[in-house]
Amino acid sequence: MRWPKGLAGLCFGGDWNPEQWPEPVWRQDVALMRQAGVNLVSVGVFAWSWLEPEPGRYTFGWLDRALDLLHEAGIRANLATPTASPPPWFSLAHPDALPVTASGVRLSHGSRDTYCAAAPAYRAAARRIAAALAHRYAGHPALAMWHVHNEYGTRCHCDHVAAAFRHWLRGRYRNLAGLNAAWGTAFWSQHYSGWEQVLPPRATQYRPNPHQALDFRRFWSDQLLVAFREQARLLREATPDVPVTTNFAFGDWVPIDHRRWAGELDLVAVDSYPAGSGIEAEQQAAFLADLARHWAGGRPWLLLEQAPGTLADRGAQVATAPGRMARLTLTHLARGSRGGMFFQWRASAAGAEQFHAGLVPHAGPDSRIFAEARELGRLLPRLAEVDPGGVAAEVAIGWDAPSWWALQQPHLPSDRLDFLAGVRRAHRALWEVQVTADFADLAADLSGYRLVLVPGHYLATDRVAGAVRRYVTGGGHLLVWYLSGVADESGRIRLGGYPGAFRELLGVLVTEFQPLPPEATVPLRDGGHGRLWSEQVRLAGAEPVRWYAGGGLAGQPAVTRHRYRGGGNGRGNGGGLAWYVSTELDRDTYRAVVGAALAAAGVATGGLPPGVDLVRRRAGGQSWTFALNHTGDPVRVPARGVDLVSGARIDEAVRLAPGAVAVVRGAG
Ligand code: GLA
After folding, report:
1. Average pLDDT, stretch 507-534?
2. How confident is residue 466, by pLDDT bands cut at 50, 70 and 90?
3. Per-residue pLDDT tens for 88-138?
4. CA of 578 to the centre of ligand 1 (A)
5. Is 150 in the pocket of ligand 1 (CB under 6 A)?
6. How high is the pLDDT of residue 574?
7. Cα(64)–Cα(42) distance, integer angstroms
8. Which atom of ligand 1 is the closest one to the Cα of 150?
9. What residue owns the CA closest to ligand 1's atom 5?
10. pLDDT greater than 90 at residue 389
11. What DSSP string describes 386-428?
12. Kind and range of the H or E element at 27?
């Protein structure tokens, strides 16, 4: 992790787009930034046509003046390469660099992000503008960080992509025999006898080959990474002392494996746009923030964008209640972000996002949102002392982007399987009882955790199977949901009974999947029910803890627990406990099962109502407790020390009004 050059403490600011405004407005902007305590702004993210109005003719004068103004005011620049939106002249000159959908439609210029990341002309133009910026601004005193591109997330299926896909596949499989085996091409006469026959998964007659589709997702993430790497190399050569980042987007549409990318960023930076304006916004923010910490390898990271004062809720931009903007920011800070940045500084007067919120709204600075921005700017420096690491979690949730992608295929036994929903549900169950969660790569050393939750981990490599076995043999507790470990990394079924890779560990043998149609439920013996999915679970060492109570599975185990002793770790340890859940449990039963697993693993819960967010950070004999009350009721949170938000001494407990926050510094 490397920090923006010349910046101490936490980052505060947003995207600043001087190209959209006359210069007198820039001066007002910079004065207002100083008033608000802004110390970092992202500049030039979509300014390519403004920087290079014709091929090879650069107009840097305006950016020179904008950066000089920032520097005079002591504000640092997170300077972007503008490659997410090539200018119209580029698309006209290089029609082969426009993206092609899976159905073969070539898209036209008219929005943003309309390029093919594998097209040689695009890549060359992107390198040129990045190199020109690096050359021009290497010595500029405002330059603190490079912001490469914007939210890598486009897709393409053109012939350039087909060529790059074949190249990537040759690297992965060496020869066609390997590819044919991994893709199961004996099925439906798909056997390949020449590389030129291999294509990206384009629109086809019926179900596409799921293994091909999965590899394409892997390839495309890697391909975008190659494009990032080319720019990053140029920037690093010019300015070895300036960190390079890109802003990660998150959601079903984002085709990258963030964890694989993160090692190539000097600082992991994420954009956080929760969907929904109720408490789910805070849950999603907490989820993404914990995920960002995982991508960052446990090191600090940066919240680079969030919307100031609004939340998107099913087509409407809902205004946040006073104070909520700060609370959402603190949700990220509690989990390792070293700042709160926004999209954007000033709301645009024109363009496709002219109604997107800004810290300076259309009405100007005499507004609620700007007043809240100023308050946040005053609060953040008081929180800078919180140790940049130090988020200690006893529980982890398995994260695996390829499993997410694999469960998006259309050929599965149910079309309602959803990796992300499963992982979110597990995270929410912990969040509601104030248990901080890490996300983890299951192939890593898990021995630091008391409990590991594994929802929807459809694919499992032998390495994952081995690491999970070592963890449980060493005394770890594991809670696995249905459809985990079922397939190998290509998506081929692990034969001999489900859940393949984890079968022995869980002490069960699933002989049959019994998915349920929409609306159907299967009753459980103690009053709850399952939906979406059920299974015929045969015990092979495990004991049942919940039973199906109706339908063909009546009387058979639905949830099991296995005291695993296999293998041994040479430390005389008795082995851990491995739970298995074979259906999608109703809310109360789900909470009860997670609660029982937490208790068995010795993980203490917060004992506060759901909606109170509690995160403890510890380092060097000190601790900081973030307590955020997202509920409508006052709460009392046990703590001792000094509240950095109010400055008050806390003797026993901090009392939080609805919506209030505290960060209590205490001893160890
Ligand atoms: C993303 C982008 C921004 C902007 C915002 C708001 O995070 O990076 O350019 O489009 O969303 O929609």
Report:
1. 97
2. very high
3. 999 999 999 999 999 999 999 999 999 999 999 999 999 999 999 999 999
4. 42
5. yes
6. 63
7. 15
8. 8
9. 343
10. no
11. S-SS-B--SEEEE--HHHHHHTTSTTSS-TT--HHHHHHHHHH
12. helix 23-36
Say which residue the tokens 């002309």 belong to: 121
Question: H or E element: which one contains 531?
Answer: strand 529-531
- Alpha-carbon distance of 268 to 258, in angstroms, equals 9
Angle at 551 between CA 549 and CA 552, to 5 degrees: 105
- Secondary structure (3-state) at 465: helix
Say if residue 375's pLDDT is above 50: yes
Cα separation, 319 vs 309, in Å, equals 6
Q: Which amino acid is at 249?
A: A
H helices of 439-486, in order, are 462-473
SS (H, E, C) 533-564: CCEEEEECCCEEEEEECCHHHCCCEEEEEEEC
Cα separation, 373 vs 297, whole angstroms: 30
Q: Ligand 1 within 6 A of 248 CB?
A: no
Q: How far is Cα 45 from Cα 39, in angstroms, rounded to an integer? A: 18
Tokens 């063909």 locate to 552
CA of 619 to the centre of ligand 1 (A): 35
Strand 310-313 vs strand 316-319: parallel, antiparallel, or unpaired?
A: antiparallel
Parallel, antiparallel or unpaired: strands 143-147 and 244-245: parallel
Q: Are strands 535-539 and 612-619 parallel, antiparallel or unpaired?
A: unpaired
pLDDT of residue 570: 41
pLDDT, residue 572, reads 42
Please state the three-class secondary structure of 45-96 as a single string: CCCHHHHCCECCECCCHHHHHHHHHHHHCCCEEEEECCCCCCCHHHHHHCHH
Write out the catalytic residue numbers: 151, 305
The pLDDT of 369-393, averaged and rounded, is 94
* Best probe residue, ligand 1, of 151, 270, 310, 359 (max atoms within 8 Å of C-beta): 151
What span, in angstroms and rounded, lies between the C-alpha atoms of 296 and 266?
10
- pLDDT one-digit tens code per residue, 12-57: 999 999 999 999 999 999 999 999 999 999 999 999 999 999 999 9
Integer Cα distance of 261 and 254 in angstroms: 13
Q: Among 19, 353, 354, which residue has the most ligand 1 atoms within 8 Å of its CB, making it the best to mutate?
A: 353
How many residues are present in the chain?
668
pLDDT tens by residue, 616-651: 999 999 999 999 999 999 999 999 999 999 999 999
Share the mean pLDDT of the chain. 97
